[in-house]
Amino acid sequence: MKIDKITSTPVWVGTRNQLLVKIDTDEGIYGWGESGLSGREKAVMGALDHFAEFLIGRNPMAIGALWQELYRSQYFEGGRVLLAAMSAIDLALYDIKGKALGVPVYELLGGAHRTHIPTFASTSAPPGEEMIEQAQSLMQAGWKAMRLSPAFHGSRQKHDGVYEPRESIPETAKWCVRAREELGDEVVLGIDYHHRLNVAETASFCHRMPTGTLDFLEEPIRDETPSAYQALRRMVDVPFAIGEEFASKWQFLPYIEGDLHQYNRIDVCNVGGLTEAMKVAGWSEAHYVDMMPHNPLGPICTAATIHFAAAVPNFSWLETRASPAESLGFDDQEIFPMQPKLDGAVYQVNDAPGLGVEVNEAALRKQEFRFWEAPHLKRPDGSVTNW
Fold first, then answer.
1. What is the spatial distance between Cα 359 and Cα 338, in angstroms, rounded to a whole number?
2. What is the reported pLDDT for 154?
């Protein structure tokens, strides 16, 4: 069997673009992958075009060797653009291999540890009564873990295009405390600050809440400087959930080895696919860090992450964006006639060969790429701040 063709298709599905990658072989078996670098799809497509030049004609079953060749056969190795492209290729190759052997991908990763995959859901309403009501509804629907909404996030900014962390902190902390009071002690509560704070602001946020209010704090600051997280770790006692932006095991290295975080928000569509994700998971197990995968994309990402979650022992929850609290449309039924479906608050692990996702390419061709740029936020003084 040889790789015959690599096709990348960026399309708008629901509320964002998905970059889908199909790898065809000369035996008619094909695989699907997905890239995770949202908002920079054209850059990833350029990398995919480069990789296709030497992947055509190669053996798709040699997944590990191809990964090494993609990474090492260039002077400027690594980086988020290249690893996002490698991730999509890696997932598609696993899909091909599973189909060729007639087994689900998790069997290629060592077999399943669990029969179903617990998820965490996110509230979509800003901090307030509606957020509490959404959280209560999620609990009634079976969710035992959830992520709350920070104040003035996304389209809910207090002022158009202006974001001031110090305005968000007291409002968010107040409603996190209220949520714990209303929801009780049994539910797992976390919040994602989307790396919009600095060290001092994060400490101020955590210190405004009684110990035990939050079970995890996701991405409070940017990840470029591990020592900043080390300083923050000494200042607050809330478990950290980070890593969705990490591209390769080397970016995880200082965080795992330094015991700086407790949950790995690994993204199989960014880190280098399942090949790299399994290495990070084993390393994390040795440091008692649980995998809590990032899953904000489409059904291909979800399916691949379910296989990953099934195959690792150190797993907590998988992110889902298909709960009753969110209507994002990423799982379009016409485009993805075969895809994972939530069963209450869990995904069942099934035995379909490969990833277990099918794409209606005729429906896919009806969609189009829409240029999208994340909001360029500024502080009240006019300076640029993090999205």
1. 7
2. 65
Q: What is the dihedral of CA 205, 314, 98, 347, to 10 degrees?
A: -60
Six-digit token string for 36: 């995770």
pLDDT, residue 161, reads: 85
Q: Strand, coil or helix: what is 299? A: helix
Of residues 38, 16, 22, the one with CA closest to residue 244: 38
User: Could you tell me the domains of the chain?
Assistant: 3-106 (3.30.390.10), 111-351 (3.20.20.120)
Nearest to 344 by CA among 174, 179, 44, 141: 141
Percent of the chain with pLDDT over 70: 98
Q: Global pTM? A: 0.96
DSSP of 37-102: -TT-HHHHHHHHHHHHHHHTTS-TT-HHHHHHHHHHSSSS---HHHHHHHHHHHHHHHHHHHHHHT
- pLDDT given at position 156: 52
Which regions in the chain score pLDDT beneath 70?
154-159
Instruction: Determine the Cα–Cα distance for residues 256 and 264; give it in Å rounded to an integer.
Output: 9
User: In this structure, what token pair is assigned to residue 322?
Assistant: 């298909």
The CA-to-CA distance between both ends of the chain, in Å, stands at: 44
**pLDDT tens across 88-136, in order?**
999 999 999 999 999 999 999 999 999 999 999 999 999 999 999 999 9
DSSP letter string, 309-376: HHH-SSB--EE-S-STT----TT-TTT-SB---EETTEEE----SBT--B--HHHHHH----------
Tokens linked to 127 = 């901090």
Q: What is the CA radius of gyration of the chain?
A: 20
